[in-house]
Design brief:
Blueprint lengths: L3 E5 L8 H16 L4 E4 L1 E2 L4 E2 L1 H19 L5 H4 L1 H7 L10 H10 L16 H15 L7 H16 L12
Parallel strand pairs: 1-2
Antiparallel strand pairs: 3-4
Helix pairs in contact: 1-2, 2-6
C-alpha cells in the first residue's frame, strides 16, 4: 500500500545547513522505513518554500534513493571467477577493470557533495543557478485572480523588508 510521510520538511524557516540536515535525516529515515511518497522541500513545517532548498532536496533524494537501493551482487558483478583467478588475498582484484567498472555503477557522484571538484562550490549558489536555469527554460504558471493578488501581497512585503525573516526576528 502507498505510504505518505512529510518527514522531509524541517521546522526552520529558511534554507541553510539546519534545514538541509533536518530534511536529510527525515528523507533518509522515511525512505529506509519504506515510505514511497515523501513530502520534502518545504520549510517552516510545510508553510514556506525555497526553490533553492527544493533543488538541494531533489539532489539529496537522488542520493537517498541510491543508498536504499542496495548494492547489486549478481554473479556478473560479484565475479567469483575473477576472485579465484586473482587468488586470495588478491592485491589486484580491487584494481581490476571489471571491479572498477561495476564500482562506478554503484557509486552516486553528486555535484553537491560527491568528492568531485564541483561539489566544493557553495551549495546555495549552485542551487540558485539551477533555479534560474529552470525558471528561464520553463513557461510561467497561470494563476487565478485570487492567487495573483496573494502573490502580489507577498512580493510587496518582501520588497518592503527582505531581511527580517532571514535574521530570525519575530516581527516579520
Amino acid at each position: 500500500l502507498p505510504c505518505r510521510v512529510s518527514s522531509g520538511c524541517p521546522s526552520v524557516d529558511r534554507p541553510g545547513p539546519r534545514a538541509t540536515f533536518e530534511s536529510g535525516i527525515g528523507l533518509y529515515t522515511a525512505a529506509a522505513a519504506g515510505a514511497n511518497m515523501i513530502t520534502t522541500g518545504l520549510l517552516d513545517s510545510t508553510k514556506m518554500l525555497s526553490y533553492e532548498h527544493l533543488v538541494v532536496m531533489d539532489e539529496m533524494m537522488a542520493q537517498v534513493r541510491r543508498a536504499i537501493q542496495g548494492i547489486n551482487t549478481d554473479d556478473e558483478r560479484l565475479a567469483l571467477d575473477l576472485i579465484h583467478k586473482q587468488g586470495h588475498p588478491s592485491p589486484n582484484y580491487l584494481g581490476d577493470e571489471h571491479t572498477l567498472k561495476f564500482m562506478r555503477e554503484e557509486i552516486y557522484l553528486s555535484e553537491f557533495c560527491g568528492r568531485i571538484e564541483a561539489s566544493y562550490e557553495d551549495w546555495y549558489e549552485k542551487a540558485n543557478k539551477k533555479v534560474k536555469k529552470i525558471l528561464k527554460n520553463n513557461p510561467p504558471l497561470k494563476w487565478d485572480k485570487e492567487t495573483k493578488e496573494k502573490i502580489k501581497t507577498m512580493e510587496a512585503r518582501i520588497k518592503e523588508d527582505n531581511k527580517t525573516w532571514r535574521e530570525e526576528r519575530e516581527d516579520w
